[in-house]
Amino acid sequence: NNLQGTLPTEIGLLSELTYLDIGNNDISGRLPSSLGVLRNMTHLALNGNDFRDRLPLSLEGLTMLEVLDLSNNEMDGPLLNATNWKSMNELKVDGNFFTGEVPESFGNLDSLGMIDFNDD
Question: 21-32 pLDDT, tens per residue?
């Protein structure tokens, strides 16, 4: 696809949303903190866009999340605390500009089957 623009704050109004894949488009800007209110979200793929800046802390509250793909964007800053991501089995953050140490909470992701930090 060739979707452009930004991800609107109103995305948080889709309270029953469980699966969002807008990968490989031309969406830019910051991720809206309203993504963090989507408590039923299990699959969030935002890879291959032009998202910038830090991850919103609200994403730490996505307790049902199984797949998080943020690969190949322009994101920076520290990685989030993963304490609440008990169901996470696939985490891709490669191809960004994250800084700092990998949080200790990543060591407690018992369901994690794949993690990709390549090119960070």
Answer: 999 999 999 999
**Residue 112, token pair as written in the block:** 């994690």
**pTM for the whole structure:** 0.95
- Distances from the Cα of 63 to the Cα of 28, 34, 38, 97, angstroms: 25, 15, 10, 25
DSSP-assigned states of every residue in the chain: ---EEE--GGGGG-TT--EEE--SSEEEEPPPGGGGG-TT--EEE--SSEEEEPPPGGGGG-TT--EEE--SSEEEEPPPP-TT-TT--EEE--SSEE-SPPPGGGGG-TT--EEE-TT-
Question: Which strands sit side by side in the sheet containing 43-45, from one edge to the other?
Answer: 19-21, 43-45, 67-69, 90-92, 114-116
